[in-house]
Design a protein that fits this description.
- This protein has a single domain (20-284), classed as TolB, C-terminal domain (Neuraminidase, 6 Propeller).
- It has 1 helix and 26 strands.
- The protein has one helix at 2-24, and strands at 32-35, 41-46, 52-56, 61-66, 71-77, 82-87, 93-97, 102-106, 112-116, 118-119, 122-123, 130-132, 138-142, 157-161, 168-172, 178-183, 189-194, 199-205, 211-218, 225-227, 233-236, 240-243, 249-253, 261-265, 271-276, 279-284.
- The strands form 7 sheets. It has a 4-stranded antiparallel beta sheet with strand order 1-26-25-24, with no helix packed on it. A 4-stranded antiparallel beta sheet has the order 2-3-4-5, with no helix packed on it. It has a 4-stranded antiparallel beta sheet with strand order 6-7-8-9, with no helix packed on it.
- β17 and β18 (199-205) form a beta hairpin.
- The protein is globular.
- The termini are far apart.
Length: 312
């Protein structure tokens, strides 16, 4: 009797996973190449209009894909080795400048402000990816790829810049090489991919920005991470792999080149943009991206929970 119930339960889980997979990508949609000829693309982020900004790291620039015009333009040359990008609610573009080893904010008018460049009077390794929480605090990863020359930190860690931008807290110190990072729209859980250990973990976000309740999410690392409005987690490796909130694989999106990073964008926040080696790709989705600081009005799909402000 117990065995029979177990078989039925497993069948139901498999059926649910199949249904989730079928409903994530828009019917008949195919991955489309939007632009190419880059050295290595990374860090996609959408602004309030759904236009997507991304980096070409070796060529030291930030580019912009206009969804309205379907055209590409250069947003910033000499980008400081820009990698990960994220917009705050005021429209400032926050940038992980891996080459300059700092986090900066670029205003809508083009002014550049350094938000942080050190922890305990020692320069960061090479800030890589970041996420802004509902209160305006910034989580960012700080690995080091390539040469170890000039490293001042004692390892590769994850940090939190408080909303007033006055204090940096080290929140993860036991990873091999942290990379992709994203949090839930309600500010309660943070996902961090340990690219070096090929694992992704989830954490509870505490009121002071520190993390607790570390849990292994999946045994897959990732360069980039994003979420959709259903709470599915998108990781990059040989393809874009999608897991539900329970860590069950629900979809895999094949890309002509190895994907590095992903984000939702477009006018309706229902297009997945993929940076992959020398190109930028997109694919229409049947699910919208999760709410972000600059696109807070996104209607939720499924259970995301209420946003609960944290006390500082």
């Amino acid at each position: 009797m117990i065995a029979k119930r177990l078989i039925v339960a497993l069948a139901l889980v498999a059926a649910c996973s199949a249904q989730e997979s079928a409903s994530i990508v828009a019917a008949g949609a195919q991955v489309k190449k939007l632009a190419g000829g880059f050295a290595f693309t990374e860090g996609p982020a959408a602004n309030a209009q759904g236009d997507v900004y991304f980096t070409d790291i070796p060529n030291n620039r930030i580019l912009k894909w206009s969804v309205e015009a379907g055209t590409l333009s250069t947003f910033l040359e000499n980008s400081g080795g820009a990698n990960g990008l994220y917009f705050d609610k005021a429209g400032n573009l926050l940038v992980c400048q891996g080459g300059d080893r700092r986090i900066v904010a670029i205003s809508p008018q083009g002014g550049i402000t350094v938000l942080t460049d050190q922890y305990e009077s020692k320069k960061f390794n090479s800030p890589n990816d970041l996420w802004i929480d509902p209160n305006g605090g910034v989580y960012f990863t700080d690995p080091r790829y390539g040469s170890r020359d000039g490293m001042e930190q004692d390892g590769e860690h994850v940090y939190y810049l408080t909303p007033d931008h006055k204090k940096v807290i080290r929140v993860v110190s036991d990873m091999v090489r942290p990379n992709g990072v994203i949090g839930t729209p309600n500010g309660r859980r943070l996902y961090v991919a340990d690219h070096g250990a090929n694992r992704t973990y989830s954490y509870r976000i505490n009121g002071d920005g520190t993390l607790s309740d570390k849990q292994l999410f999946v045994e897959q690392g990732s360069d980039g991470v994003t979420l959709d409005a259903r709470g599915n987690v998108y990781l990059t490796d040989r393809a874009v792999t999608v897991y539900n909130r329970r860590g069950a694989k629900v979809a895999e999106i094949e890309v002509p080149e190895g994907p590095a990073n992903v984000t939702f964008g477009g006018k309706d926040n229902q297009t997945l943009f993929i940076t992959a080696r020398t190109s930028l790709y997109s694919i229409p989705m049947a699910v919208r991206g999760a709410r972000t600081a600059i696109r807070p009005g996104q209607q939720r799909e499924g259970r995301q929970g209420r946003q609960r402000p944290r006390q500082q």
